[in-house]
Amino acid sequence: MVNASDIVKPVIGMEIHVELDTATKMFCRCRNRFGDEPNTNVCPVCTALPGALPVMNAQAVAYSIKVGLALGCAVPGRTKWDRKNYYYPDLPKGYQISQYDLPLCEHGLLEVPLAQGQPKTVRILRAHLEEDAGKNIHDNPGYTGVDLNRAGVPLLEIVSEPDLNSVEEVGSYARSMQRLVRWLGVSQANMQMGHMRFEPNINLHITRDGEVFKTPIIEVKNLNSFRSLEGAVGYEIQRQYDQWQEDPTGFTLEKLGKQNRGFDDATGRTVFQRDKEEAHDYRYFPDPDLPTVIVSDQWRESIRNEIGELPLARRARYVEQFGLAFKDADALTMDAATGDLLDGAVTAGADAKQCAKLLLGRGAALANEQQCTIAEIGISTEQLTELAKLLAEGKVNATAGAKIFDKMAASGQLPGALAKAEGLLTVTDTGQLEAWVAEAIAKNPQAVEIIRTGDKKAEKSLGFLTGQVMQASRGAAPAKEVQAMLREKLATGQ
Length: 494
Description:
Helix content: 40-55%
Number of domains: 3
Oligomer: single chain
Number of helices: 16
Largest sheet: 9 strands, mixed
């Protein structure tokens, strides 16, 4: 609980580590792939054997520039590599190749959508490229193993200014960054595979009786899910305020400085690890084994030309041009390929809202079952276009459309051929419709009587009869026409 007389402002900056989806590691040609047997993707460079020399992966640099340009960052014409010195079992060299004073990208912006009010603009301080460390394995009692498959994987660290002020803003910022790097195709950003990790820096500015107190800055290390991120930030805000109330003059940034803490998912609490290191503790110096990186104007512009329309701009276009609800437009711009499906179908003459309904209905359901994106379920632009047109023209109804969608995703067949083969084309033969309606009336006298007497359950009974006709037609009868025909026949006593 916050004292009514206190004004408490959380001040939060974010460090996001993104593993880049290159074929090989940052400074050697070992395979960059998650899930392989431990220590199978290693070589003299990433295990730090004497005499092994690093060679830069240009694709990782290009991916990093792409992210920087999408964030509106400046990309200087020159950058370099530095050695960040520290000792840990998963860092075989005893230093990490990183970037210190000349980052690849600096001074950008990311717009963050919020549930209430206008989007928030978060300033990006810098984005620098480095190599990831290995991974300590604690599966066996009594000892810890080290897997160096991850050592040397290209890692882009994106550092924000402390512009975030709530758990909601932190969560939205992290999700927006995940969407961006996926959209650009530079990372899978799958947190279960360690592709994306968060390290929020949190402190409070507390105003009491006109005086401002600042609590120590806490960096929570290596959070690998949105749930952990939001849980850690929420807990830390409350913990810092409670501790400050116990000692308002002692629990301050001036006296205690900065700390690193970890987050325990099981208890929902942060745990002290160590006092935070400063830059001089890492003894940065230029890596003598790697040359300066020159980013020419031509290279920078060629990368810029690959970016195209970004997700927020496309979402706004879907709302304004296609008339989609914000929620639907947001869901369709989670990745570029899903949006490309929609755009392709609309360009081919399909109705945007009908396509969106198909993609967010059965498309999203299949994607959820298969644990993939909507674009990855196997639907082509041609299939989506044809099915949307069949529905718009009344040649298949919604029930049949759902069945066709599933079948065409599994088989790759076109919806028109499937509808014909499966008997799912809407029946327009009036004689056949009348026969099904007559059969439903004859077999359900109780429902007929309820409708004719004007009972309060009449609409429900009409729906029941309509369902009987739909069942008899295997979903091929047009529901609206069937219902109209039932009303007419029951009103005239036929």
